Amino acid sequence: MKKHATKKTSAIPIYDDKCPLLRAIEIIEGKWKLPIIWFLSKKSAMRFNELQRHAVGVSHMMLAKCLREMEASGLVVRTEYNEVPPHVEYSLSHSGKALVQVLDCLYRWGEIYA
Q1: Is 23 exposed, middle or buried (0-12, 13-18, 19+ CB in 10 A)?
Q2: To the nearest 10°, the Cα dihedral for 105, 106, 112, 113?
Q3: Residue 41's closest CA among 79, 80, 93?
Q4: Three-class SS of residue 40?
Q5: Multiple choice CATH, 20-113, 3.30.230.10, 3.40.449.10, 1.10.10.10, 3.40.50.720
Q6: What is the mean pLDDT of residues 105-113?
Q7: Alpha-carbon dihedral angle through residues 53, 56, 61, 65, given to the nearest 10 degrees
């Protein structure tokens, strides 16, 4: 009886080997990140409380967490002004603005297939 050669593959489960699409989804995942990106895309910069008024339902803590994560990933720029009282504004980075273009395409695709 002949032995069949077994072919060893170095297959990696899809979620262990982060492809660029999965990394992108990780960066924008969550309930509030896409709405925050959308609101920031409508103005050159927004203050924290203004963002919170637009994102109805987001808690202070969750908004702060999302903004920190998006700043760390390079989507959002936080600008602090040395004034009294302290003044901080958030805006989209170059990468964040590029993402808005991609989201616009996804939006149009959704309109067609919805």
Answers
A1: exposed
A2: 160
A3: 93
A4: helix
A5: 1.10.10.10
A6: 93
A7: -90
Tokens of 91: 């805006």
Calpha distance 51→55 (Å, rounded): 6
Q: What is the pairing mode between strands 46-47 and 76-81? A: unpaired
Tell me the per-residue pLDDT of 8-55, one tens digit each, with 9 for 90 and over: 666 666 666 678 888 899 999 999 999 999 999 999 999 999 999 999
Kindly tell me the burial class for residue 29, based on how many C-beta atoms sit within 10 Å of its own C-beta (0-12, 13-18, 19 or more).
exposed
Angle at CA of residue 32, ends 76 and 40, nearest 5°: 40
